[in-house]
Write a structure and sequence with these properties.
475 residues; alpha/beta; FAD/NAD(P)-binding domain; Enolase-like, domain 1; 3 domains; 7-stranded mixed β-sheet; 5-stranded parallel β-sheet; 13 helices; 31% helix; FAD; redox-active center
């Protein structure tokens, strides 16, 4: 087996495997090392995203949404469902099948692009005159050398102090995706993306869900108007969301978990649940890489320091994705992976964090790109705002989902689109038009003048653009 390469990529998550493939397309000899294993001990490339994150969570969100529609939404369409029954093992089996298909797809892409995949855990061994030595331990133990290395090892869930994940009672995203039965009472600490998505899945399937959030504002990163609407809709669905709480302690018993906390008014409370999901952020996976062997160290928070181009202080070593600054998003890691592969070959790509879209796959879906209204106000930038409700959109009425709106923000003088914020049906797909427009520095008028097919949800984007100048046609 080949042991010398132009490039070694450590990690086969979204950033790593994409970087490896792009580098191979550009003519480099590439090895990609990854330690994820499936239930049978075989390789499972794709990282957290594919194995216990983006992909399985979307599979369960889709399945649970079908279940909820069958129980509560089909009747409106003249479809009566008798004897509705949840087969959770089958639902989980489908989720695992979707994961396997993605794992196998990545292995196929490696083979197609002549990327050498190595199954095991990587660590730096030494810095050489012409590159680096990397040891691999595990199913495939060996030493590899390369002129360049990309660190793409991703992140892990952050645990509460004195409340480690056991994935039985106290759950990270991993355990939240694999519950063998629907808990009667489910607690969620953290009202971020993972907490809201997992809380939504298990609420739809029958759990009584309580979400505890330390921050006083709901979805503080989102536009305030969107966050307000989202909170209203989630509470209407039955999620008990409590803001401004302070966790005092978590104690797991034989069958239940007790959470002591102070509510927003400072009153002491105790929440007893059958399962507790903790989603309070993630930490970079840098432990065990033996960075010191090549003269590299992390910052105080455990991140690998990089410049704008993802170069580390050690020439020839790069880092991307969750182990570096910037949002912990799979698609951000992918873009950095492509950019680094191209930079290694002398090209000059760029990644604009301001046009990286954000999505929460709840119902209603939430998506945004660019700046929020509160950010523009804080910066003192003059802007125009236009919004259009899905209630006035013909396709949304036909779907039977008229929740939410599209909101567009543009510069008061130039009309350049500064941000787009969506809550409603298929927001995750609609946001792409806004991202494309912003990459081309489009004005709201540009979107307003583009012919959108009728009837489509995308017409709400056109109408929001028109509304920036107070000339919406359908509202």
């Amino acid at each position: 087996m080949q042991t010398q390469f132009d490039l070694i990529v450590i990690g086969a998550g979204p950033g790593g495997y994409i970087a490896a493939i792009r580098a191979a397309q550009l003519g480099l000899s590439v090895a990609c090392i990854d330690a994820w294993s499936n239930a049978k001990g075989g390789p499972a490339p794709g990282g957290t995203c594919t194995n216990v994150g983006c992909i399985p969570s979307k599979a369960l969100l889709q399945s649970s949404e079908h279940y909820e529609h069958a129980g509560h939404g089909f009747a409106e369409h003249g479809i009566d469902v008798a004897g509705l029954k949840l087969d959770l093992p089958r639902m989980l089996a489908r989720k695992e099948q979707v994961v396997r298909q993605n794992n196998e797809g990545i292995l196929y892409l490696f083979k197609k692009n002549k990327v050498q995949f190595v199954h095991g855990r990587a660590s730096f061994a030494a810095k050489l005159d012409a590159g680096f030595e990397v040891d691999v331990t595990g199913p495939e133990s060996k030493r590899l050398t390369a002129k360049q290395v990309i660190i793409a090892t991703g992140s892990s869930p952050r645990a509460l102090p004195d409340a480690a994940f056991d994935e039985k009672l106290i759950l990270s995203n991993t355990g939240a995706l694999a519950l063998g039965e629907v808990p009667k009472r489910l607690g969620v600490i953290g009202a971020g993306v993972i907490g809201l998505e997992m809380g939504s899945v298990w609420r739809r399937l029958g759990a009584q869900v309580t979400v505890l959030e330390a921050l006083p504002d709901f979805l503080g990163a989102a536009d305030a108007q969107v966050a307000k609407e989202a909170l209203k809709q989630f509470k209407k669905q039955g999620l008990d969301i409590q803001l401004g709480v302070k966790i005092a302690g978590v104690k797991a018993g034989a069958k239940v978990v007790n959470v002591r906390y102070a509510d927003a008014q400072g009153a002491e409370q105790t929440l007893t649940v059958d399962r507790l999901i903790v989603s309070i952020g993630r930490v970079p996976n840098t432990e065990g890489l033996n960075l010191g062997a090549v003269g590299l160290s992390t910052d105080a928070r455990g991140f690998v320091p990089v410049d704008h181009d993802c170069k580390t202080p050690v020439p020839g070593i790069w880092a991307i994705g969750d182990v570096v600054r910037g949002p912990m998003l799979a698609h951000k890691a992918e873009e950095e992976g492509v950019a680094v592969a191209e930079r290694i070959q002398g090209q000059k790509p760029h990644v604009d964090f301001n046009t990286v879209p954000w999505v929460i796959y709840t119902a209603p879906e939430i998506a945004w790109v660019g700046q929020t209204e509160q950010q523009l106000k804080a910066a003192g930038r003059a802007y125009k705002a236009g919004s259009f409700p899905f209630l006035a959109n013909g396709r949304a009425r036909a779907l039977g989902d008229t929740t939410g709106f599209v909101k567009m923000l543009s510069d008061a003088a130039t009309d350049e689109i500064l941000g787009v914020h969506i809550i409603g049906p298929m927001a995750s797909e609609l946001i792409a038009e806004a991202a494309v427009a912003m990459e081309f520095k489009a004005a709201a008028e540009d979107i307003a003048r583009i012919c959108h097919a009728h009837p489509t949800l995308s017409e709400a984007m056109k109408e929001a653009a028109l509304a920036c100048d107070g000339r919406s046609l359908n509202f």
